[in-house]
Specification:
Six copies of one chain form a homohexamer.
Chain A (H helix, E strand, L loop, with lengths): L19 H14 L4 H6 L3 H16 L6 H14 L3 H15 L2 H9 L8 H16 L5 H9 L4 H24 L13
Helix pairs in contact in A: 3-9, 4-5, 4-6, 4-7, 4-9, 5-6, 7-8, 7-9
Chain lengths: 190, 190, 190, 190, 190, 190
């Protein structure tokens, strides 16, 4: 059962009672993650919005892709670090620690991804994600070609762009609404 | 039937043949808009991604909200102007012209929203959207309070944040993939 | 005869009556453009200032040059877009549409010149104009050489610099004084 | 007689021989300033351009105005400092030293105008000029009202804007063409 | 005994053998901290430089002050986060965790200090430190007065300024030389 | 004997009487420089702080190094110009004039170091110092290699970094405390 503290600075209580499908989804989160991530609780004032967000999120982060789940989480952290999003750095920093088994990697991606111990493929991917985050209007063909030269397919380029895009969105929703990360993230996978 | 030019700089052909539900959705677009927006064709290399994107898009832009559809399109244009996204300024500039019947308003929101003839409510909404776009990490309670003082509910604040967030994402996916707007947008609703 | 609305946010009425030479010049504008551009009405509180501005303007934009009039208008729009000047984007966006017969080109230069369909010569010219607009103190010999490599003479380089410079000035005078473009520009040459 | 070194990095020799009116004007400069400012020599490859520039320059900097000549030179230095224009900081820094008799004032305006010993009127004027220089698109009515509150008329506001605008232009022409200040400026009025 | 890996990307081996006083100082570090911080090993190619740095460091961070040691470490982390210094965020993030016993506080100061749970005094102190870090030339009397209003003495203001200044320096030396934090910091005080 | 005006905006009187060693040091300054630099008077409210600062300062600026004293002063001015520190631009601008015998060089480094007449070695050194000043988190191995290619040793790189770092610190302490340069600097070595 999700804890009762307010997930954001907005007074938007969850639908009560939650529909059965939502309750089931939250129970799965509780079982697998040990918590219902506050971002889900934040959207649960409107089940259509919750469902639309989770469908997009799950497609981008979990569906089949040429990018591994770790790579997608690395993009999440680098984008969220540039945008200084409290919620997403905490939650996805924990995910990087979990998937990589390397707490130092999670810390480096939060602090300055340029110092992390990265393969050339990872560095190219994160440089593109950072460029898309800070100056998307300047992206041109040579930037995409650099990814192809690092071994990425056009489909992979789409996935890098949409992962960076997802956090451009989530970072802003989280910061604009004052979203708080669940306490359990902080110590997880250290 | 959608035209055959490539919607982005990536070599990602649409699923062929399209599933029946997608074909039907594209036919509706053709009937109502006179075109299938290229953003839909760009996602149609993977029907799950297309469906996830359209579900989120339709929820944010078309579902019931304290924000009118025009107000949401105004946010779309202001965010896309700050990010200088070619696709979204063209497509949503046309939508502002359509919903408002005021071509000059669309032009002002593209060029510099501060000069547009806005109500205090609209100005507060667009100032918040602009802040979320350029410096989301600095948003704090007084910024949200300013919206409440302008007559917005907490639910409206969520909707402003998620509309601004949607274009933070779409602008980046469009610019990173070299997405081209449909030709018909340029002259529409002038 | 010029219309009577205030061209700027400043209370600076035109000299009344206008000197005969000015009246004649305004009549020519009315005949050829269908309006007296508000920038001229804005300066007409002081005929010496009006004359100094129009002489410089006409020399930069209309005198013989290795740059075509369209190319100079393209620089005008790109600079004004970077500076987000309402007056100049509207007025010179219309001029690009007129000289090029290509409304989409005008829109692209307003929104993000990097997406426009440009020749290498045009792109080099606009990249230099953009650099001069945003970071003139960093211009060094290699930047000028890049223009020579694209086929420009030293005289052309001077003309690119002074066209970019003219709008650095006009954008600021227009924005600082709250100058409003004539209504007729918006729909012209669509 | 002007010295023969090249005033810019462009190969644009002065018209030879200079027309009589230009020669006379340069002789007056030599008599009164002890030099022909290189900016005039830079434009003298085309007498129409030279005349258009000097007419505008003389109107903005020397014509009757609610702003003293020193105040206009102070704006010139602050704008040129923000833009880091070598030519204009040197030439107008010397002019501030000359008109004010206070070398330290010239140095402060070059280095950081906020530390200069300014009257509230001067500070308001320079803050507005700085705003117009760095973010002209954000200028709105309260910014102009702040000048009125500091004692400036609407005509004065126009003059502040056009002085700041003149150096927005001149700084860019000078930096883009690699213009060198005359050697004599450096030691003048110390 | 310090470990033998290179503390920076520069080939600057420590003086060998170390002078007795240095050896003793390093032994104390080893005893009290469980390591010799790499910043000390980085300076130890020149004992005078090491001594000058440690004297300044110890005075700023450890001498008597109206600022507690935790407060000085909080400034260290906020400045280092703005500058994205890998070494200093790691080392001083650990110190904040240690002094505060609150790992979440260390994480918040690294990620976005505005979200941390701060007293008004702490917030005023960190806002000033952030301003000094990003825009020191704009600091004026009202900024200092804001600190006095939050309860700080003029001596405290000096100490805030010099703590922020110390990390402006250390961040740059660390980043410019590629300084690596000791491995033990990462897991410490979680 | 030091003059009695307040060296900063803080009410922090010098220790009175000064310890004998400090008095002697100040007397030497008076003899050799004709003044006690205000930065020393500013720190003299606490002799330990004064000593720590002067020891570091003297090591960085005056100790044996592959960088000449003039080169270190050139870095001081370029960093202080980027940070627009009034005190340090005045004091170290005078030092550049003194060591170089070239007042124009001091002026160019204050105004825009790119226009100064520099050797390739000096340009590489100042470009690195400027990068460390504005974007230290982006420094990577190729930036250091560029210095090695220009003839600098790894030890020299350390010295460039620590000189740039010293002024990152001093600029901020000076600006944050409102430090005023001694009057005598302004006219010195012109």
């Amino acid at each position: 059962m999700p804890d009762q503290t307010q997930p954001t600075a907005l007074d938007l209580p969850m639908v009560d009672p939650l529909p059965q499908a939502t309750r089931k989804y939250f129970d799965i989160c509780q079982d697998k993650l040990g918590m219902v991530p506050n971002v889900l609780r934040a959207y649960a004032f409107d089940i259509d919005k919750l469902n639309a967000f989770t469908a997009l999120y799950n497609d981008v982060m979990l569906a089949d892709s040429g990018l591994s789940k770790l790579e997608r989480e690395m993009i999440a952290v680098v984008v969220s670090s540039i945008n200084r999003c409290w919620y997403c750095q905490v939650a996805h920093g924990a995910a990087v620690r979990q998937y990589s088994g390397d707490p130092k990697l999670g810390e480096a991606l939060v602090m300055n991804y340029r110092v992390a111990d990265l393969t050339p493929r990872q560095r190219a991917m994160l440089d593109f994600a950072a460029l898309v985050t800070t100056a998307s209007a300047t992206v041109e063909e040579p930037d995409r070609q650099r990814l192809r030269d690092a071994g990425f397919s056009d489909r992979d380029i789409f996935d890098i762009a949409s992962t960076a895009g997802l956090y451009a969105m989530s970072n802003r929703v989280a910061s604009a609404t004052g979203m708080q990360p669940n306490e359990d993230y902080h110590a997880a996978h250290r």
